Amino acid sequence: MAENNPIMGEKDYILLKDFKVETEVDEENGFILCFWVYIFDYKAFPSTIIKQVFAETNSSSPLLVLNEKTLMLLPLTCLHNDAPGPGNTDLPSEVPKVTAEIQHPQHKWIHVGYEVTSDFVRLYVNGELAGELLLSSLLNQDFIPNGSRRTLIGVSGDSNLRGFIHDANVFPSTLAIKDQYVKDPPLRLSIDESSISDIEEDNGFWNIVGGKASCRRIFSLDVALLNAFGQPVNNELEVVASLLYAHNRLPVEKTNDEEPPLLVSCDGIEFASSDRPSKLSKGRASFKLKISKLSSKCDNRQFCIKFGISKLEGYRFLEDFSPSIRCISRNRTPRTSTIIWKKISAVHPVNGSQTVGLDYISCEPKHNTVHEAKLSPTSKRVRLGEAKISKIDQHREEYNSIASKHNRVENGFGSRLEARPENFEEVNTSQSDSESTGVQDPALNSVSSRGHSISDVTTFRYCLGGLTDRSILLKEIATTISDDEISGFADQVSVYSGCSHHRHQIKMAKRLIDEGTIAWNSISQSNLQVQWESAVFEIEEQFMKIACCTTRSLSQQDFELLRKIAGCQDYMAQENFEKMWCWLYPVALTLSSDWIKAMWNSTSPKWIEGFITKEEAELSLQGPRGLQEPGTFILRFPTSRSWPHPDAGSLVVTYVGSDYALHHRLLSLDNVYSSGIREMNVKVKPLQDMLFEEPELTRLGSIMRRH
Questions:
Q1: C-alpha to C-alpha distance for 150 and 578, rounded to whole angstroms
Q2: What is the pLDDT of residues 143-171, one digit of tens each?
Q3: Disulfide-capable partner of 642 in 133, 428, 582, 592 (CB 3.0 to 4.6 Å)?
Q4: Is the residue at 247 inside a domain?
Q5: pTM of structure
Q6: Taking the alpha carbons of 224, 227, 233, 238 in that order, is the dihedral positive or negative?
Q7: Which residue stretches belong to region Disordered (predicted)?
Q8: What residues pair up with 52 in beta bridges, in sequence order?
Q9: Are residues 179 and 57 in the same domain?
Q10: Are 461 and 426 in contact (CB under 8 A)?
């Protein structure tokens, strides 16, 4: 299928049904069979992956069988008369076999090693020993044939299973399977969930505003060409996107007078996605897409987007699919009115009294990503400049009122948390979730008078770019300009985008890049890859240094989550380190703040138990009879928010609401703990007190770790 392709030879990736290898069973010397397998389709379990054929009798039996989450191996040294035939995978209990548990075996590469000696048979999965069968225990049984025999491992897996085999080889048993595991990892194409922006995620579905040209919105994401270890592969191939129906994976049709269903936006011009593939650069391809179809116009069917390598059709591991998509019109978002917690930086008269409050921001800002899946469909940041009565003018008056009235506020700034309903009609009329070009924060009025050397073109490139574009741009400029220029650029971006949340991420760029480079050089010692276990000590040292923390170190569970974020296993490359660093550095910087550091260091109660996933937080709020009592909450750092995402390093509250449903809300501390407020000597309540004054939050929950 790909004999002329520079990155793939005809023999590199073989369909399971075409795989065939011969070997001779030598009981004295033994042998090792290693291969990668990728299962992409199955009809029933159990299914044979590989069968063994005995040359002497021309009979066959299963060798490797997949039964849902169990991989079963029938050793070559088993007497073939006692083993089941290839069509019968219900193994009798008396037939010796080796088993290994595999979670979610479909649509991923699995490395299988099969070692045979005169004493044992071993099964290896992904370089690790998964099971062993001692042949000495079978000496008094009729399972072991006498002498060596010519055996054909022939494969033709059965009709219930379809897949690919990569790098299948037979070696002497003196070689290490671990070396073969890391030698030639296969490729895969994958959507980079951390790069996704302008997509609202609702219970596993993507909600995207589409339709006619005046209404549809751009959403962006990156696709990465990786090896099986999650490391980028640098090949200049082209990736093409196409819109399919989610239920049958068939292309969405286009009539003669209609626009293409999926469009690529390039320099403000729309093209059919099939006409504009995106070229991979350093293993990544970026897409800015629009959908011209609406689910309501297609019998309410859902869509999905397929990404594939041009000219390499049929290689399923070089394809990836988005979750199911509800393509909706601007006036038909599925969100309903709810309470949204947002910042209030003003003194509001309530029943004749004065109260100043911090509210929350909902946990679905502009750059929502799928790692933080299943966010509340109603959770949305209020966009600036939306209301008919300008909210910017309100904020200007409110901000100025603090300076004149703060001495008269007896309880100080942040006396309680206030919840306010949001008008979602207004939210749906701007370009994005948290940004609106051309709206100025009143706190930034002085920016126009402050000079800096970065051009307006660069500023607009940052405002209009996706996360990957912004990261690349910051890496380009942060090492060549001064701290003052970085600060000016941060303020200018906040002015042009109308979103002050960018300021913090831009200002940390120089330190993040410089300290990350130093840390990686110290860890790698000029090596391309390093063992994860040897890197964790330096990672922890850097974390505690940035967080200004001397009393609390990272736990083993924390390191496991960091490894998951890095996308590596036993070995870490620079790309893995940078991915992990862009998440860890903003978190450590947040913890260096006095008001958060105290919560991190607290042991009774333990406000922040460590780095946990959204799923672990939700599991921890589950009681033996369902959810815990309303008001129970847990604090966590969202794993999907990495620098330069505006919310990188923020805290999220996961809690049980009064409706007995789980909710996730992003804490926004910008105004409460800003330098301007501190300079005014306004007394700020501890975050713990403000949390408990929120009616929705009544008791701190505890974490149940996965093991």
A1: 50
A2: 444 444 545 454 544 567 888 999 988 88
A3: 582
A4: yes
A5: 0.53
A6: negative
A7: 410-447
A8: 61, 153
A9: yes
A10: no
